[in-house]
Each structure stands twice: as structure tokens, then as C-alpha cells.
Amino acid sequence: MWQIISILFFFALSAPAQAWNAAGHRLTAFIAWQQLSPPAQAAIREILSRHPDYEQWVKRAKSENGVDVFAEASTWPDAIRNDPRFYDEDKESPTPALPGLPDTARHKRWHYIDLNGSGKVMTGELDQQIERLSQLLRPSKQAPALGPQPRRLAARSTGNTAEISIALPWLAHLVADIHQPLHVGRHGDEGGNKVDIENPFNQRLPFSNLHVYWDDLPGPPWLRGRRLEKLATHLTETYPPPTQGTVVLWRDESHQLLTQVYPDTNGRPLPTINEAFQQRARDIANRRIVDAGYRLGRLLDGMFGERVSRETH
Ligand SMILES: [Zn+2]
User: Fold this and answer.
1) What is the model's pLDDT at position 101?
2) How far is the CA of 175 from the centre of ligand 1 (A)?
3) Cβ-count burial of 133 within 10 angstroms (0-12 exposed, 13-18 middle, 19+ buried)?
4) Backbone angles phi, psi at 79, to 5 degrees
5) How many other β-carbons are positioned within 10 Å of the β-carbon of residue 203?
6) What is the whole-number distance in angstroms between the Cα of residue 18 and the centre of ligand 1?
7) Position 308 confidence tier, pLDDT thresholds 50, 70, 90
8) What are the residue boundaries of the structural domains of the chain, listed by start?
9) Which of 17-21, 154-158, 187-191 has the lowest mean pLDDT?
10) Residue 170: exposed, middle, or buried by beta-carbon count in 10 A (0-12, 13-18, 19+)?
11) pTM, full prediction
12) 78 CA to middle of ligand 1, Å?
């Protein structure tokens, strides 16, 4: 019980703009993994196994299965927010270098972009980082597209081993983030972080802010294993696969959803979640996680899989 209370307390205190909580990221990663061909899965497992925090992921996942480790790795960019080995480059001086990592910055600006009223990007690097990380992970044009084995670290276009081992968890993480509408949010309210809300559906945290509300919609942050698999399967059975589109499309879809993600006050002092809003919000969150999962899977399969076009039903 105390453990649960302390976990909740920890989450109530954690920094704003976390992104989908860990459940949202693990669900996205789980759905993505189902889209990968065996060679792509093997290549991803190999890259993740070279990451300095690989053992931590295995420990947290209580599993060495590729899908479980991949799901855990996708939460790593949020986990380093509270890890003293890393530093906030806007406020702190660099922490000592870590073997196997190109830097120890937390890169908080990678998680979001904020736009002004005319749709101009004011802060954040979410979309451009997805493009950059994809570029880093893509096979080089000179390298043969179909290697006999997925030992292709050397064949990646520009990245060295350390860059590649962090690029993969980051890419898996950010493709999920860009599908969270408030990560392509309004500059004036810091993507909903400055919007206090009342949420009678959450008895443990009835007063919160709008960003936290959306981040927590996918499920409890400790969701893993069989329950995660069950929920991911339910989501892919409920929502159809999306068109693949581009990073710009993913960003614009999220931005357009902003008109639907702010609750009314409903006569209360603060904007308040009611049943109709809660249902619609859950539906949007679930659909966006499915969209992100398929798209991430196809993107990674294009980088690490065999060069054949595969229908994803
Ligand atoms: Zn994030």
C-alpha cells in the first residue's frame, strides 16, 4: 500500500510535460513490435543490448524477451528526467560522461513542440528530432540493403555505436509523444501544463493539470506483461491501422485535435472533466496510441527489416 502511495506521490510531484506516461509508451512499443519482421526484431534487440542501461530494462521488465525490453527502452527518455547521472542542459552543468552514451543531457525540448495561435512553432524540437534520429538509424545508401545477418551497426549512415544505441529508444519514445495532442500544444499554456483542471474521475488526484490528465489516460504507469499485452491487443482490435503519412502529418493531426482536448468549466470554478469528455478523451488517446504503434513499427521495419512491402492487415 505504502509503495503505491509513494509511487502516486512521486508522480504527483514529477516535472510537467512528461508525455504519455509509461503505459502509453509501452503500449505503443508493444503494437510497433507486432509490425516488425523477424530480422527487424533481431536487429533492434541487438542494438538495445549494447545500451548501457540494458540490464536495468531487463530488470524492470522482469524479462529478456525482445518485446518487453523494447517496451521498457521506450520509456528511457522519461526515466532519465529523474536520474542524477543526467543533467538538464537549460539549468545545470554537464554530468560526467557515461560509457556507451554520446552525452548525458536530458534533452527535455525533444519531447514536445509548442505552437502559437497561427500555428508557428515557438519552442521544442519534437518533429525535427524524429527526422534527425530516423536519419541516424537509416541504413547508408552505400551499404547493401539486405545483409545476411542484422549485424548492421556499421552500416548505419552517420551514427556511431553510442549514438545509435540512444537513437533507438529516443525514436520509439518520440513517435509516441508526437501522437499525444498536447505535445504539439499551445505555447501560451505550455501544452496544457498551465491549465488547472478538476477531475472527479480520479479520486487520488482530483485536481491536476490538463497535460498530466492526458498523459495518464492510457493506463497506470506500472502496466506491463500480460495485462499490457491484453490491453494492446484490445486496442488493435478496436481501432483500424492508420495510413503511414509523414512526421508533418502526425504533428498536424495532433495539433488539429487540440480543439477537442480542452474541457469546459461546466459551471465549476475550473475546467472540469465530465463523463462525455472522459469518454471522448479516452477514445482519442487510445486511437492515437494505436496510430503511433503502427507507424513506429512500419518506420522501424523500413530501417531494420527486409526490403519487402508488408501489408499490416
Ligand atoms: Zn516524452
Assistant:
1) 92
2) 9
3) buried
4) -60, -35
5) 7
6) 6
7) very low
8) 26-304
9) 154-158
10) buried
11) 0.87
12) 6
